[in-house]
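Exercise 4. Each item below gives a protein and its sequence. For each, produce the structure-token representation.

Item: 4513_t:CDS:1 (Funneliformis geosporum).
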Amino acid sequence: GRPPFYIKDEEYDLSLAIEILGGLRETIIPGTPEDYVNIYTGCWDNEPDNRPSMDQVVDKLNAIISNITENDQMNNSESNNFQAVSNLYRSSDI
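Answer:
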């Protein structure tokens, strides 16, 4: 990772803080999964009441993790099924 608004050999200063207060936000890193982008851009909302609570952020992250785990399990199951059929085919005299 890197600090927000990182520019090599450049220090943070008051003008950056003022720009952030004025709405300056990080550029979204290309290739970042949309679910993550939605979480952290929601946290950037200028209106504090519109930002998700930490509980909401944790719930969203857990949902992402759960979805990834389910997809991995499905992929493993499909891979195991393919392997079983492949082994059966190899062991037969077809």
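Check: The chain has a mean pLDDT of 82.
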